[in-house]
Amino acid sequence: MHDDVNAVRIQVARQVAHWRAAVIALADLDNFASPDAWRRLEQYLSTSLRTNLRGAVDRLVRESDVLAAELRAADTLDELELVRRHVVRFRRRFLRVETGLEFYGDAVNDRSSPKLGALLSACDILAGRALDSILTPLGKPVPPVLTYVDKGLGASIMRAGLRLWDGRTLSAAAAIKLTRHNLNGRPTALLHEAGHQIAFTLGWNDELAEVLRRELRDDPELATVWSGWSSEIAGDCVGFVYAGYAAVAALHDVIAGEAVGVYAMRPFDPHPIAHLRVLLGTAMATRFFGEGPWTDLSKAWLVAHPVARAPGDVRSLIERSLPRLPRIAEICLLEPMRAFAARPLTALVDPMRVRPDALAALARDAGASLGISSHWLWGESLRLLALSGYRLATEPDRAPEIATQFEAWMLRLGNSVQVAA
After folding, report:
1. What is the distance between the alpha carbons of residues 105 and 108, in angstroms, rounded to a whole number?
2. What separation in angstroms does the CA of 134 have from each of 202, 345, 347, 403?
3. Residue ranges, the chain, pLDDT below 70
4. 368 and 257 in one domain?
5. Among residues 326, 352, 378, which one ends one of the domains?
6. Pairing status of strand 156-158 against strand 145-150
7. Same structural domain for residues 122 and 207?
8. Exposed, middle or buried, 307 (CB in 10 Å: 0-12/13-18/19+)?
9. pTM to 2 decimal places
10. Terminal-residue alpha carbon distance, the chain
11. At 14, which helix (H) or strand (E)?
12. Rounded to the nearest 5 degrees, what angle is found at the Cα of 375, between the Cα atoms of 247 and 117?
């Protein structure tokens, strides 16, 4: 029996030693992203994120110390078996913490390229300004933003305040994924994702769902479907108030595709049917701006994707929704909400500031200094984004020139933060 205990102890001790050493390696965050990439983060973001991740590792360190103590105290086969089981559970927790570190490490490592790092720093600023303009007046904390690049068509967000993979650590930053095509002149998807963070912080999603359900109560199916789309509609609303038609056109270009996708209605999918989602965006633009390029976009959309081509059950839902889109747009943007201290979203962010004539006035007033002067870069960065996106949407023949100008001012904005940091 003594020999059996010693044999088992050696195997368990080796595993405990292995995982304790692995935890020590986790503690060095430079193993996940280069020191230069960490330095390219704004100081507050870097400090918050590193503190957050080290906290997760510190919990593992304490748990590994407990494992070592249990091993020292184990004298019987049953006690050693219990330690072995604890090692297996510890290994699962280790892998979950490691997943979080890898996620953030990959995101931070995008900053290793000076050019991409500066562009992403500028995106951090834009999304941070969008959060600040709504959350700060309402007395809510504004989390730091970490943008990163990945493949695909659509953006996404790991919201600040969510539990990470280990089930214990709360995410310290709003981590927003952009795709490379987003960076080509109109990353308005940033604003949609910021909208998700805003809605999460304020509890707006549930309230918007409640209001939509009440407005559409005469058609129970519509009420159920539209209220289930509230979270994505909220993101689209935030994108619209900050970027106007630029956000609508960019959304169109991402979700336009084969008919099977345009008419698709998937169970439990929080995204509205693409066919209706585009037209809700143009309805928002019409409500605030009158007739404009969005009018042609909606006409072209219906030509390319006639309602008659939709599958029968979806066609009926689209047909009943279309005449109600103007009212739905008003509810989303003009209805006073508890989330906004009994005010509408547009009382906090006025979409008239990104109306085409307002953007033209901005360009005229700034003249040659637009995108160069720190005054315009810092004071009007969100409207500069709206202006670039609007020009790209309405002047396709000048797209290369506009995209080059966009990249130039974004690099100036991002590099100014990196120098300060």
Report:
1. 5
2. 10, 8, 10, 28
3. 1-2, 417-421
4. no
5. 352
6. unpaired
7. yes
8. middle
9. 0.92
10. 63
11. helix 2-26
12. 60
* Cβ–Cβ < 8 Å for 211, 249: no
Domain that residue 126 falls in: 116-352
In 110-152, alpha helices (H): 114-135
Give pLDDT, residue 301. 96
Number of domains in the chain: 3
Last residue of a domain, one of 90, 108, 126: 108
Same domain, 125 and 102: no
Looking at residue 181, its pLDDT comes to: 86
Summarize pLDDT for 104-154 with one digit per residue, the tens: 999 999 998 999 999 999 999 999 999 999 999 999 999 999 999 998 888
- Token pair, residue 85, equals 């089981």
179: number of CA atoms within 13 Å, CB side?
Answer: 10
| Helix axis angle, 274-289 to 293-304, nearest 10° | 160
Backbone angles phi and psi of 103, in degrees to 5: -60, -55
pLDDT at 418: 56
- Record the tokens describing residue 56, joined without a space: 């997760």
Q: Are residues 24 and 121 in the same domain?
A: no
pLDDT for res 230: 98
Rounded Cα distance, 403 and 399, in Å: 6
